Amino acid sequence: MGVDERRGAVLRAIVEEHIQTAAPVSSQAVARASGLSVSSATVRNDMTALERDGYVSQPHTSAGRVPTDRGYRYFVDRFADPSAIEGLGINHQRAVSEFFRGTHNALEELLHETSGLLARITQHAAVVVGPPAESARVRRVDLVPLQQGQVLAIAVLSNGAVERELLDVDPDLSIESILAAERALASLLNDSTLHSPPMPSPTGDAATDALVNAAHVALHRRAEHADPLYVGGASRIAQEQDAFATTRTAATLLELLEQQVVVVSLVRDLLESGVTVSIGAEHSIDELRDCSLVLAPYRIEGEVAGTVGVLGPTRMDYQHALAAVATVSQQLGSLLSK
Amino acid sequence: MGVDERRGAVLRAIVEEHIQTAAPVSSQAVARASGLSVSSATVRNDMTALERDGYVSQPHTSAGRVPTDRGYRYFVDRFADPSAIEGLGINHQRAVSEFFRGTHNALEELLHETSGLLARITQHAAVVVGPPAESARVRRVDLVPLQQGQVLAIAVLSNGAVERELLDVDPDLSIESILAAERALASLLNDSTLHSPPMPSPTGDAATDALVNAAHVALHRRAEHADPLYVGGASRIAQEQDAFATTRTAATLLELLEQQVVVVSLVRDLLESGVTVSIGAEHSIDELRDCSLVLAPYRIEGEVAGTVGVLGPTRMDYQHALAAVATVSQQLGSLLSK
DNA sequence: TACTAGCAGTCGAGTCTACCGACTGCTAAT
DNA sequence: ATTAGCAGTCGGTAGACTCGACTGCTAGTA
């Protein structure tokens, strides 16, 4: 076995051991656990080399080594097999299957529950990004008068999502005008996507036209900037006492998840560049310095529709997380494709 | 000033000081801050009496006093004026007004954003319980076929809420049957509440009847057990380092909020018995032993429709929290009443 | 050249001690 | 009834010390 190969094995042992124990890993522990039959002294030599190259670091002089972001990266690229669904364990596999075999409600709830499932099996916070409303076709449009001067515009999309916007209208607007607007909207939008920009489409009646336009604009706007984020198991972040040492960071993390927007765009950016594992400082958001993100897109009828992901400390079980997101995304996709 | 009166003042000073400093309060501090002109020795005597009666306690022998749940209770009952909206401060008042003057979307979003507002001004986690769907009238019912064998049932309620359930149906069901079912449902439900139990209503066609019934049952079930909880500022819980000493409790708290159901029923129970402030162990849920809950119902057209509340450590600023929930609930109610 | 054994050195973490200071409780005086 | 003053209690902090888990290095071996 060449020396480079052995160093890889040493790094692997360090990562695996550290993931298990959460403590710096000593040369002895590696010599014992790696399966290599070399002495701890040899491991020590390799460790200094690994440290020189930036794969591991020492918290302080007389301590074992801890993987750096770069070390984790090497480990993931080299040793983690994303297709290894067997990394899940039979119990979790069964849990996933059962979950998706059960009955579910409209899209939003399914996605929310999926994030809970993923959190449960990975023991980390989980995120699910829904399919963008853009790609779904409009199945129905309603304009429902709620009270004087208020109309609720509702669009039902082919994927089961329901977009709605409250509109303020002229209180004296007649029911007939609303109905006319509804008809006009229906013929305008049905079977098209909400993504396409609103176009004027005169019906002859000014009040009706105004309402049609307002509803169209509102629904379009919503479809534009809302692919919602579902977060499950956020409380796990608070449990990760050791990883997010200061309570401070845990709190800011939770806040970040509450705000949603940052996370959504991060996930989208990562996935667009084909990244499925983002480790520590690799992503640019400062609050996520100590976190890793393991992602998998799910496909509806072949098209990438959204993303499921796990958010945990950099010291996380990547094998397991990868297997979990792979399984869940696959099953979610096939359920949604039906 | 009688001795009982003075003891009340001492207790008040202890509570107020403790809320500010988070530390046990010494007799000197009380003598200095209470406005009473007595010596610390006198205060000490009163303190032993207060301790004997269970209003305060000593963390250890040579420490100051800390209010007990009972002490907070007395303080709230006696000194906190729930109608004291001026306890909010002009800035917060303005923030609330501006929030409600801005435009908002459908009910669910408004409530969610309201929880965020309340969290922001109180610096604690906030909850909003939505109006029960039961009381709202049905404005529209849709049955939208999504794909072979799937129909989405949608009910739009007069309060702007939209309830939906996904139904599995016979894949060969004709469009006409679905339309017929939709018409039947509309005449069955329009202007009534979802609360009333489903009744058979034969139309003559078996398949249609089955669908009508399935939709009705599903929507009714949903209206029954779903008055949803909106949680804002959950991350504040993690920030309360001192109050929820162990990370453990913070995590379980967050989990509780995620599960929703426990909190919803607690809030409902409390409000039914007219309680607006529940302190520490007063509520029976063990995980909330160190928390207080400050609630205010909001009314839509005179009827109690839901609740807004603040969830914080027992050591919280009750004055401010009371003022906040009072203002927010009042404004939320009047917005929803329109 | 590649590896190993063994030793010296480093440093964190835990324990012990002593001490300071912040309180209280009590007593005696007003 | 109130107060002043004093003695006693106890948590928290700082310093000294030890222990043990490491590493790095050097010299020796295959």
From TrEMBL, chains A, B:
Domain (Heat-inducible transcription repressor HrcA C-terminal): give its ranges. Answer: 108-320
Q: Does the keyword Phosphoprotein apply?
A: no
- What Pfam families does this protein's entry cite? HrcA
| UniProt entry keywords in alphabetical sequence | Repressor, Stress response, Transcription, Transcription regulation
- Gene Ontology biological-process entries: negative regulation of DNA-templated transcription
Q: In which organism is this protein found?
A: freshwater metagenome
Q: Which PANTHER family match?
A: HEAT-INDUCIBLE TRANSCRIPTION REPRESSOR HRCA
In the UniProt record, does the keyword Repressor occur? Answer: yes
UniProt-recorded Gene Ontology molecular function terms: DNA binding
Q: What is this protein called?
A: Unannotated protein
InterPro entries for this protein: GAF-like_dom_sf, HrcA, HrcA_C, WH-like_DNA-bd_sf, WH_DNA-bd_sf, WHTH_transcript_rep_HrcA_IDD
